[in-house]
Design goal:
The chain has 303 residues and is mostly helical. It is built from 17 helices and no strands.
Length: 303
């Protein structure tokens, strides 16, 4: 009897999903387009030129149009119009444009994943606002290539979409507990699943061979003290996420979820304090609408 119980427990543990197994099981579902894989490979080739990069991206007309729309927005503020991807590469840089390629592709991929658990408009609005605040924080801290923090903020909760798709029944229970304010979302996930959406997002970006700074910013945005490296990027997304929750509660009476307090060490890491928040909120308010229009999937109603 004892041996049987032990076997059953072992089998149950074996069948228990992990953050990594969720992503592995979602490979076909959320695999990057061929053009993104090529872009990643080309970044490892020192002989790659802006023209080479532009030619590869231009094979995907939809992606090209989205990228040029982003680059020509006042979000970037270039004085003259950027007509080609090659020109965008020359102005912004290969690695920074790679981040935008990944972000645009990820939004497109996940907009096709059906889920009745999450309010998708609210999800993308939260993600975009977090990206805007993360970039503003990065600029204030004089972080090199601040647009990559927009990408990190935009993708910080991407693991939630995989949980909703792969574990829909558990996701509904999770959402019920979150709505009932039984704890912070990641705490409830850890309690019910043994991992949280940040871990799943980190695993996904690892499988996409993204830069470690982006992986860490997503993976540790709830636990900035655990990051080990790229503490500045992690602290920025951690603070941006908390500020996004504050903004949502200020604007939407239906937002019931609890907000994680900002870790004081995150402020110390950036050399800032809460006094910068009013100006950040004001600046984010002016940029949010355009950023939302730039990246929100067109098939999400009400976006």
């Amino acid at each position: 009897m004892g041996e049987s119980m032990g076997f059953n427990e072992q089998q149950q543990k074996k069948d228990q999903p992990t953050a990594k197994s969720l992503v592995t099981g979602s490979i076909r579902l959320v695999s990057l387009p061929e053009v993104c894989l090529r872009v990643n490979e080309m970044l490892d080739d020192p002989d790659t030129s802006a023209s080479d990069f532009g030619q590869v991206i231009s094979q995907d007309t939809g992606l090209t149009a989205r990228l040029l729309k982003i680059v020509n927005s006042s979000f970037y503020g270039f004085s003259s119009r950027v007509e080609t991807v090659s020109r965008a590469v020359a102005i912004i840089g290969l690695r920074e444009l790679r981040g935008l390629v990944i972000a645009a592709s990820a939004v497109e991929i996940f907009s096709r994943i059906p889920t009745e658990v999450l309010n998708m408009v609210r999800f993308w609005r939260h993600s975009v606002y977090c990206g805007v605040v993360a970039r503003l924080l990065a600029e204030r801290c004089h972080v090199l290539h601040s647009e990559r923090l927009f990408v990190a903020g935009l993708l910080h909760d991407i693991g939630k979409l995989i949980i909703c798709n792969r574990l829909p029944d558990q996701a509904r229970l999770l959402q019920d507990k979150i709505n009932a304010r039984e704890g912070l979302d990641f705490e409830i996930e850890q309690d019910m699943l043994g991992f949280d959406h940040a871990e799943v997002g980190g695993e996904l970006l690892s499988s996409w061979l993204m830069p470690q700074s982006l992986i860490n910013a997503v993976r540790y945005h709830h636990f900035p003290g655990d990051a080990g490296e790229f503490e500045i990027e992690v602290a920025i997304v951690h603070i941006a996420n908390a500020m996004t929750g504050m903004a949502e509660q200020g604007l939407d009476v239906d937002v019931e979820m609890l907000i994680q307090p900002v870790d004081e060490k995150a402020w110390e890491t950036l050399g800032l304090d809460e006094s910068v928040m009013p100006q950040l909120f004001a600046d984010a308010g002016t940029k949010f609408g355009e950023a939302l229009d730039l990246v929100l999937p067109q098939n999400i109603p009400g976006g």
